[in-house]
Design brief:
With about 675 residues, this protein is mainly β. It is built from four helices and 35 strands.
Length: about 675
């Protein structure tokens, strides 16, 4: 479908739904949806003004609650990869660089938010999930495909929304520690106190590992086995610290102010492709996010709900490769600083028949880089973005049918300090969603949206030895579509307490898709593909049965094609995507003991654009047990029973079989 026809379709749909709303007002019995009541039905720790109301979104999503990973020594990537449509690429063991793909997208096409603040940078594209501490997280929401307009940017893959811990009434404290394979160590502590109108929360943790796992090094000669050798992974250690602090005050039941500050620091070694013992390359990261938010609800005669937030983001990275062990650029010792100032305003109006949301946002981001060896700064870049987002959720036929038209307007300006050049762009991204629920247990959903993604400074100019820049890159533009069904039944029988099934077809047609092309030596460069598509089917199943058991299964099948009509890439699969992925997990819970085992399979992926370097299929078996004894939570995990050293990135093996034990005390 051509872009003009889609935009026309969305405009007509918007007009039709508002006409239908007026018709329903005169001919149907009104359905009361009062703003104050809706807000009150959700606990303070679970929902705040400005969050996506998962009960009213047509998007396909999943929510991971804290109790699913409480006490575990895992990365965020290991938690979310168990969800349908999610694929992870990781460069090593615990704490190593890892990125996420949703429905066959690249990592840059997934936007990750933490408490409303985007972690994607204009400078760097994809977010390193290993730099997000699990100790701070209350829940993770994964929106696949269409992006709710509560979030500033639309993307082909979707959005991952991280909600950090929020204050609860009373006094709550905890402390924990853990140890595991490859000298993995963790310590953590938490306190939350809300005696009245004031409340505060502090969470701190420490995590480190040597990551000196043993693997077979073929010395980059796959077909010559005579030089293969079993050796330990070198220079893959990391050490990270994290502190989250929150302070809040309730002026009234409807007016509240919050201040958050999160500080994160990580020192990490970067092994080179040949696993050299002499390599001492490192990447040190320090990040600080400060946020001030004012929430004021039930305002005026229209009972508006509002949220106003200002935030400050600063990240400093120091890349040290003075030995020239990584990349082709020789000795490097560089500093990269990203600074972002951001302001957002959210306005919500709830009527008897619809929910209207208006969001305004602006940000100023500065990217500075410095060559420490040469004691000189390179060309600094800045990106200014302003967005206007509007959405109307319209309820018809006693809320059985919900129509959700929305529109994003993005105004962007890039500036370069040294050559005094600038670039201005304006993008319009309409979207439309439909949810039909004929019964409480059956739901049909479909969505269509346009999206635009600007190339990052990292893709445009490259750095850090691994990647070359490409200043000729154009913004990628495309259309997302999905349609599917969700079935959920709850019974009073212990043999089958709950049954949940969902199946979704999705497709994304992209022009000027930005993809990274890797050489045989593992070096990359971002390039535009004139045309491509990603389509597939994802499915998920959950069964609660016999009172103590839960079965979880999900699968995704992808079909991607490079339609560039250029060179040997035409008609080939897009690199870095598995064609099929499966997961099966069985859990048993009796009193305070919970046991689980899971089986993960991922097949058919290529490292390179011409599809000459085929990745090995991945097969993994994991298991674990936890015991809640009084105030203690004891957890034991065993991962990768098969001791498979699969490589998500060519030349960078994952760790093999590993074990972790942790203990946590809650007061």
């Amino acid at each position: 479908m051509k872009q003009q026809n889609i935009i026309l379709f969305l405009i007509v749909a918007f007009v039709f739904t508002n006409m239908a709303n007026g018709f329903a007002q005169t001919d149907s019995k009104p359905v009361t949806l009062d703003a104050v009541v809706v807000t009150a039905e959700k606990s303070d720790s679970d929902f705040q003004t400005g969050d996506v109301d998962t009960e009213q979104t047509p998007a396909f999503f999943s929510v991971i609650k804290r109790e699913q990973f409480e006490g575990k020594m895992e990365n965020l990537s290991e938690i979310i990869e168990k969800e349908a449509g999610v694929q992870i690429r990781q460069s090593g063991g615990l704490g190593s660089f890892s990125t996420v793909s949703l429905r066959g997208s690249s990592s840059e096409q997934v936007v990750i938010y933490m408490d409303g603040v985007p972690l994607n940078e204009a400078s760097g594209g994809g977010v390193n999930l290993a730099n997000i501490s699990l100790s701070d997280i209350a829940s993770v929401e994964i929106y696949r495909g269409i992006t709710p307009v509560n979030f500033g940017k639309a993307s082909v893959g979707g959005v991952i929304n991280i909600k950090t811990l929020r204050a609860e009434k009373g006094l709550h404290t905890s402390a924990g520690a853990g140890y595991g394979s490859f000298n993995a160590r963790t310590l953590g502590a938490f306190i939350n106190h809300k005696p009245g109108q004031w409340d505060y929360l502090i969470s701190a943790d420490y995590l480190s590992a040597d990551n000196d796992f043993e693997f077979l090094n073929d010395n980059s000669t796959e077909w010559n086995t005579s030089d293969d050798i079993q050796e330990d992974r070198n220079n893959a250690q990391f050490d990270q610290k994290n502190i989250l602090a929150k302070l809040g005050y309730d002026f009234t039941n409807n007016v509240r102010v919050d201040f958050h500050n999160q500080w994160f620091s990580k020192d990490q070694g970067l092994p080179n492709w040949r696993n050299s013992r002499q390599a001492r390359t490192s990447l040190d990261t320090t990040r600080n996010i400060s946020t001030l938010k004012l929430t004021a609800n039930d305002l005026g005669l229209c009972h508006f709900n509002t949220g106003t937030r200002i935030s400050y983001f600063r990240q400093e990275e120091i890349y040290d490769d003075r030995g020239g062990h990584i990349g082709l650029s020789g000795n490097q010792h560089n500093k990269y600083i990203t600074t972002r100032y951001e302001a957002d305003f959210f306005l919500e109006w709830l009527t008897e028949f619809n929910t209207v949301s208006l969001m305004l946002g602006g940000q100023h981001e500065i990217y500075e880089s410095e060559n420490i060896l040469g004691k000189e700064k390179t060309d600094d870049k800045s990106r200014n973005t302003f967005s206007i987002r509007l959405q109307d959720s319209i309820f018809l036929f006693q809320e059985k049918l919900m129509l959700t038209p929305g529109l994003r307007c993005i105004f962007l300006r890039d500036e370069s300090e040294d050559d005094e050049t600038s670039r201005d762009e304006t993008y319009f991204s309409p979207q439309f969603g439909l949810r039909y629920r004929p019964t409480q247990w059956l739901t049909f959903k479909t969505n269509m949206a346009k999206y635009v993604r600007e190339p990052s400074f990292f893709e445009l100019f490259g750095d850090r030895g691994f990647f070359y820049g490409n200043e000729e890159l154009k913004a990628e533009k495309g259309i997302n579509f999905d349609a599917g069904v969700e079935i959920t039944r709850t019974t009073s029988h212990d043999w089958l307490k709950r049954f949940s099934l969902n199946m979704v077809y999705f497709r994304s047609d992209v022009d000027d898709l930005i993809t990274r092309v890797y050489s045989a030596q593992g070096f990359g460069k971002a390039m535009n593909i004139s045309s491509s598509y990603i389509k597939g089917i994802e499915a998920g199943l959950k069964l609660d049965f016999l009172g103590i058991f839960r079965l979880i299964a999900n699968a995704i099948r992808l079909d991607t094609e490079n339609q560039s009509e250029q060179g040997d890439a035409d008609g080939k699969k897009l690199p870095g995507r598995f064609e099929t992925s499966y997961l099966a997990r069985i859990e048993a819970k009796y009193k305070g003991v919970k046991v689980h085992t899971e089986y993960i399979v991922e097949k058919n992926s290529y490292y390179d654009t011409p599809n000459l370097l085929k990745a090995e299929d991945k097969e993994e078996v994991n298991a674990g047990i936890s015991w809640l004894f009084k105030s203690f939570l004891l957890t034991f995990e065993a991962k990768n029973f098969g001791d498979d050293h699969y490589e998500d990135f060519n030349g960078y093996p994952l760790s093999g079989r590993s074990y972790f034990f942790s203990v946590k005390y809650n007061y």
